[in-house]
Specification:
There is one protein chain. This protein has helices spanning 30-52, 58-62, 77-91; strands spanning 8-10, 17-19. With 94 residues, the chain is mostly helical. It has 2 domains: 1-55; 56-94, no CATH class. Strands 1-2 form a two-stranded antiparallel sheet. The longest helix has 23 residues, at 30-52. Bound molecules: zinc ion (ZN). Residues 11, 13-14, 16, 27-29, 32 line the site of zinc ion. Zinc ion binds next to loops.
């Protein structure tokens, strides 16, 4: 005799019931798993920010540079040196 056991579980994201294929499944679709993960990351980063915002330097808080310098290096050497020059002028360094 064959018994087919259908296990139903509620999706943690939308609350609909779905058929479990394996034991650790918690969401009805990969999209809902993705949404839940994004939401959790959002919550965690907000928590991290509020916990450590007083300890963070200005640079970490607002990113490297302010207006003309980005956090990443520009591959064009001329525009990169221009950006550094402008940033120096703005900060009155030189
Ligand atoms: Zn769902």
């Amino acid at each position: 005799m064959n018994h087919i056991i259908i296990k139903l579980k509620k999706c943690k994201w939308c609350g609909k019931e779905f058929i479990k294929k394996h034991n650790r499944e918690e969401y009805c679709s990969t999209e809902h798993r993705k949404y839940a993960r994004q939401e959790q990351l959002r919550i965690n980063s907000r928590k991290f920010y509020h916990k450590y915002k007083d300890l963070m330097d200005e640079e970490i808080k607002w990113g490297l540079g302010s207006v003309f310098l980005s956090a990443h290096r520009n591959n064009n050497f001329v525009s990169e040196s221009l950006a550094i020059k402008r940033e120096k002028q703005k900060l009155n360094v030189e």
